[in-house]
Amino acid sequence: MMSISVTTGLQWQWIVLAAVLPLAGGLLLAWPIWRSGQPMLGNLAGSAVMFGAAIGFIMREHAALDLAVQACLEAGSTCWPEPAAFTRFAVYAFIGLAQVIALFSLSVRMDDRRRRRGYAPEWR
């Protein structure tokens, strides 16, 4: 049975994992696609990884909260997660959105560099 302490406070180890792993995975997937000259396809692939991971972390948080609330109900009391479920879900959604923004920003810089390589240095 899951302890009731899950309903209080954020689980920072999961937040750090959500901030690091999808970003690394999305970049590793997008990088070779960008290098092949397909920046939009690389952006789509990286974004799918990042948004998919964000949804997965939200679902994991939902399941953990559901188990904790169920344990409270079985114990004969009611408990409310603190912070609220929406806040917890919003943390993961914001992390996913920030990762995709970073991915697109990096893509623009890489594409700009790639385009500039085709010009002579005095025309850059």
How would you describe what is shown here?
The protein has helices spanning 12-35, 39-74, 85-116. It has one domain. Helix 1 (12-35) packs antiparallel against helix 2 (39-74), helix 1 (12-35) packs parallel to helix 3 (85-116) and helix 2 (39-74) packs antiparallel against helix 3 (85-116). It is mostly helical and 124 residues long. The protein is built from three helices and no strands.
Supply the number of helical segments: 3
- Poorly predicted spans: none
| Major sheet attributes | none
State Rg.
20 Å
Output the keywords.
3 helices, rod-shaped, 74% helix, 124 residues, mainly alpha
Topology at a glance:
Blueprint: H1 12-35, H2 39-74, H3 85-116
Q: What would a concise description of this structure say?
A:
The protein is mainly alpha-helical and 124 residues long.
